[in-house]
Every structure is written in C-alpha cells, then in structure tokens.
Amino acid sequence: MMKMFVDRLLLLSLMLVVLALLATSAATLWGEALGGSTLMLHMTAGGALVVGMPLVALWFLRRGVIRQAANAMLRCGYWLTILTATATIITVFLCMLPLPSTDQMNELMELHGYAGFAMVPAVALFSLAVVRSRRMKLTRSATPG
What we know:
Fumarate Reductase Cytochrome B subunit; about 0% strand; mainly alpha
C-alpha cells in the first residue's frame, strides 16, 4: 500500500513539474524569449526536475520496470522519460560551462527546448503505462482462477 502511495506521489510530482515547465516555456513556441518572472519560475521548476528525476528513475527501476517483460509500454515510457530528461538537463549544464561560444550556447538552448518539449509526451506515456499496469495487477488479483 505504501509503495502505491509513493508511486502516485512521484508520478503526480513529476507531472506537475513537467506541466509547470511546459506552461512557462510555451511562449517559446511562438518565438518569444523567456525572461523575468517566467524565466525564474521555469528555472525553479527545472531545479525540481533535476532533484526529482533521479528519485523517480531509481524508485521505478527498483520497482521492477525493467523486469516487466510483458509491459512494453511501461518500459518505453520509462526510458523515454529518462532519455528526454537527461538530454534536457545536460544541454543546460553544458551552457553553464565556460567552454561553448555564444553560437554554441544558442544551439544548446535550442536542443534544450526540443528535449524539453519531447519530455511532455514521454512523461504522459510513462504515467499512463504506470496507471494501466496497476489496474492490470488489481484486475488479475481480483479475478478468480
């Protein structure tokens, strides 16, 4: 029961953080730049993602996402979420280093945006797969035979 509560809490937190990141970056879809309080909110939610994503990754890895051979949707959603979150985090981290030029930073920020927007359907797929997996387990345990 406690594991299910933690599953739900982590998924809800992940979805809220990703939605906050999406809401604060939506203006970039129309060519506008982030700035002011919108940028600060985006960076705060990004910090929550950097801290929370390893927790989500390790928790669900320990819960056996990899071993569930029959649930390809769950594995795919998990790995896509990990991949897109990692790409999003790494591109911003590389911008913080003194190595890239201004043009390279602009390219990294563009890649950051693509990876970030790709994270939205990845998290949606993962969340849907976790809910579906739980329902299947509950149905199997309630079915006689």
